[in-house]
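Let us work through a complete example step by step.
Step 1: write down the sequence.
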Amino acid sequence: MCEGETVKTGEESSRRARAHVRIVALPIAVGIVFFCVVPVIVSCAKENRENPLDPAGTRAGEDPFALRASVSGSCIEVTWNTVGVMGIEEYRVYRKEAGSSQSPSKIATVRGSATRYRDCGVQAGRRYEYQVRAADGRGRESSQSLVVSVEISTNPMLLINSGERYTAVEICTLSILAAGAVSMRTETGPDPSAAEWQAYATTRLDTLSTGTGAKIVSLQVKYGDATVSAVVRDTIFLDQSPPSPPVLVSPSDGTTGVSLPPNLVWQRSVDGEGSPVVYNVYLGEGSPAALVAAGLSNTSHTTSGLRRATAYSWKVLAVDGAGNAATSEVWSFTTQDVPSGFVLLNAFPPATFTMGSPSSEPGRDSDETQHQVTLTRSFYVSQYEVTQSEWESVMGWNESDFRGSSRPVERVTWYDAVSYCNKRSQAEGLTPAYTITGASYSGNHIVSATVSWNQSAAGYRLLTEAEWEYACRAGTQTAFCNGGITNIYCDPVDPNLNQVGWYCGNAGSTTHDVGGKSPNGWGLYDIHGNVWEWCWDWYGSYGGTVTDPTGPGSGSDRVLRGGSWGCYARYCRSAFRYGSTPGARTDDLGFRLARNVP
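Step 2: predict the structure and record it as tokens.
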């Protein structure tokens, strides 16, 4: 399979030029609007503005500033829109008391593009008028905005514990906002008339009446002109009882083989006072020491980042709106182990890597276009190529040329490989990955068939071409998994390839026991050389940014990767691509297994 070059076909690309036109509205003095199609931006009419700082298109009765004003506590919040006029450097805010014969006074200058000002120099019970103007660096002002007016109510604002609805302690904090107030009186109850007047303060401590349930605090203030406000009230619920403890549901206590990431589920807690309940989840190895989620309103949580074959403990804490808490029991589970002889790849998906080779890599072929590939699924990969003993135990026959129980099986067709995957899956109680119909045989070998892949099945399967290169590279970008390529042929021996793979420079024209060379960085042996490895994909051109690629929908050759004992060093590179008819069987064609993570 390594004696001749494969002819690769490229894909032609074409570009289409697009002509653009712009639709421009032409305002006419009488108010009629025509639309014209022109190839460039044009000025269709001159602006007629007496003040150069006024926004374009301003008409009588319009306000391009869109000035707004609203009460915010004991202050007034003034906001506006920016105006698109060249040279504007600041906005000036003017105010006067409504009904006053005096001209409005400038109370603030707001620099840059800010469009907000908070005016706290106001008094309760009064109405104020605001306007805003834009100004340039020379002090020139635009025409004024439309005037907006707003009144500060004589009624104060009262909040218990900053507006909280529930509390577990009887001493609470009152927040009081009343512009211009000089004295106040408060009472735990709906009527403060019996309480003594005290000096006005924005905060004070108060003690709620004993017993759970709704607690009302009332407030009245007096202003400097002896005006007394209306009574205002706020309510808070005193709740000193914890909710019911959460009841854990799954994974059940002591469960083993839990798939990653585990979904932790519990029952909803009940609070006797009707307070809302949230949940904090704790988890850890040995003891549930780490807070992994807080403030959850739902009753499940998926925890990522856990290790395989590891025992974890977990619990859930229910917290009501008053801060009362109740904890669940502590349960434990053990995460799923990696199957023997396999390694777990892409444990925390997604993973993105660069597939293909750079144009400067020695021995490169033109079909190795570099592109970004994202893999969204975790998967297992066998550490070794399938051996002859593994093959015989499942298939009952072995026609390899280079015999040895620990040597890789060869002389198997692509169809033989997928048939092995299915039979081994069935023997181990796994859902087969493939459906094989219409098989034709030559002796023991399947030489043609129709094969479909159930990508959600947990059974054994072949790697996709993208998965194979991701696994081979083990995070590297060099020609081999352990470094660059020095010699692209057999002689002299390439020093990096000699460490990790059997090829024409060191194999002696035969296969070797699997695992005889050093593994790559992820623990995979013979990923370079020994025997070619069948992949799922039909051979075809690739490129562009792709996610979970599985190759073309049809073709004549299935992909082979990794090179073999008889190949030049260049054919054993991580990026080298080859293909053969799926019915071919030679003494250098084998395969490696993969499995989905349940």
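Step 3: interpret the result. Helices lie at 388-395, 414-427, 465-473, 495-500.
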